[in-house]
Design a protein that fits this description.
It is built from 19 helices and no strands. With 453 residues, the protein is mainly alpha-helical. α4 packs antiparallel against α10 and α11 runs antiparallel to α17.
């Protein structure tokens, strides 16, 4: 006869067992739905403790993601650069990766500008210059951006989570490892690889909390801002979502079909776990291990994916650095009654293609927006007009970013003749993000020399 304790715990174990067997996408949707419902109750019934609880849940989840960012970015960049020694024609692969980053960014910013010119998102909003607030704690010029790229104190770069400086340090250390040779650099390389493995394991634990984090983040937005906030910014919000959707499902599909000559549906089936996690976490860097894994599962050689994905997670931002700033610049200019000409639109495109590294893979794109506005000479107070809805916009922006970070390695690999097309088209099955061991077979696979055509 079972004890009372055993009998009482059995239903509990069964319940959590069912939760673990629930597909991750279903868990995310459940968290999303509960978050909206609880946020609506908190706002309409003025339940302050519920609003506070939702805020704290979302804040803790984002803080956990940010906690993993410094060691994850540094170790991933160092390893990816150092491992280029195993890749034949590494320089050509890197150059073509950067070229496709620029091409896709140019396409994305062009779509953003076209949508903004057609829809005039800043007209009829009822907003005025007095509704904005100037930000003084973000990079607002090219000078600040460039001088802030090189750290004055390595410790400060990690403590203050300055991702750009951490990327810079990672590239320098990785290049130094290549320079001193495999024998001398092996101890540091092994240590860095161990750090990367540890951080990614811890990050998988954080990822398992994504449904709960989604509940808190969405619930807080609804509870604090409600739906009335979207009214004066409805056109702008719709423009961002439509622009990102066109790039995500339209442009990327066409590039995959006609450049890589693969089936776009196979891509979305394989990459969807990374795209959905990016949507709820709003962090390209936080999604990076998942993006890398789905990219490898889609047939990109592990050695090349281990370089392209971490690099893309910190510099490849079609949503945050192309579509969003182009639309936001038009929006701010129209609210302030400032005319933009052809030269201004070309300048927006230039800033989006060249300055995308300013977004650095963290949640939000305020730095990139201030860089764009300052380059055009538009009032930085305009940033304050958009801050409130930034979390809502950042979800689709980050999903677009991450999709692009997976698409470009596929395009380059296909063009170089190193894409495993059989693996790309193979059924992927259920991808359980909650299982850190799912990629163990891939991680344990022996290194293979990568030869490009």
């Amino acid at each position: 006869m079972s004890s009372p304790e055993t009998s009482e715990s059995a239903p509990s174990i069964s319940f959590f067992g069912r939760i673990r067997r629930t597909p991750f996408w279903a868990q995310i949707l459940l968290g999303l739905g509960l978050g909206v419902a609880l946020g609506f109750v908190a706002r309409e019934a003025e339940v302050s403790w519920l609003t506070t609880t939702l805020t704290q849940i979302g804040t803790i989840f984002v803080q956990l993601l940010k906690l993993a960012v410094p060691p994850l970015v540094f170790s991933a960049i160092v390893i990816s650069v150092a491992n280029l020694r195993t890749v034949n024609n590494a320089a050509r692969l890197a150059a073509r990766t950067l070229l496709w980053f620029a091409i896709t960014s140019l396409i994305a910013v062009s779509i953003g500008l076209l949508i903004g010119i057609v829809t005039n998102p800043g007209h009829g909003t009822g907003l005025t210059a007095h509704d904005g607030s100037k930000l003084t704690d973000v990079t607002a010029s090219w000078t600040d951006f460039l001088t802030g790229l090189v750290p004055t104190n390595i410790v400060d770069s990690f403590v203050k989570v300055n991702v750009l400086q951490i990327v810079f340090l990672g590239i320098v250390f990785g290049a130094a490892l290549l320079k001193i040779g495999e024998k001398k650099g092996e101890p540091f390389l092994k240590l860095t690889q161990s750090v990367l493995d540890l951080v990614q394991t811890a990050l998988w634990w954080i990822i398992r909390l994504s449904p709960l984090g989604t509940l808190g983040l969405i619930g807080k937005s609804v509870a604090v801002y409600g739906w009335s906030l979207l009214s004066p910014l409805a056109t702008f919000t719709a423009d961002v979502y439509v622009g990102c959707a066109i790039v995500l499902f339209g442009v990327y599909s066409l590039l995959l079909r006609f450049v890589a000559k693969v089936n776009p549906l196979d891509f979305f089936k394989g990459a969807w776990p990374a795209i959905q996690l990016a949507f709820v976490s709003r962090s390209s860097v936080g999604t990076m291990p998942v993006t890398r894994r789905v990219t490898i599962d889609l047939g990109v050689p592990r050695e090349y994916a281990s370089f392209a994905v971490p690099f893309g997670a910190t510099t490849k931002m079609d949503g945050c650095a192309a579509i969003y700033p182009s639309l936001a610049a038009i929006f701010v200019a129209q609210v302030y009654g400032i005319h933009l000409g052809i030269g201004d639109y070309l300048l927006i495109a230039f800033v989006s293609v060249i300055g995308s590294a300013a977004t650095a893979g963290l949640t939000g794109a305020i730095v990139m927006l201030t860089l764009t506005l300052s380059t055009l000479g538009l009032p930085l107070e305009g940033v304050g007009l958009l801050i409130a809805i930034d979390p809502i916009l950042d979800m689709i922006r980050t999903a677009t970013n991450v999709a692009g970070q997976a698409v470009v390695p596929i395009l380059v690999a296909a063009r170089e003749g190193i894409l495993d097309r059989t693996a790309f088209a193979a059924p992927k099955g259920d991808f359980n993000l909650a299982d850190p061991e799912a990629g163990a077979a891939e991680a344990a696979a022996p290194e293979k020399e990568l030869v490009t055509a």
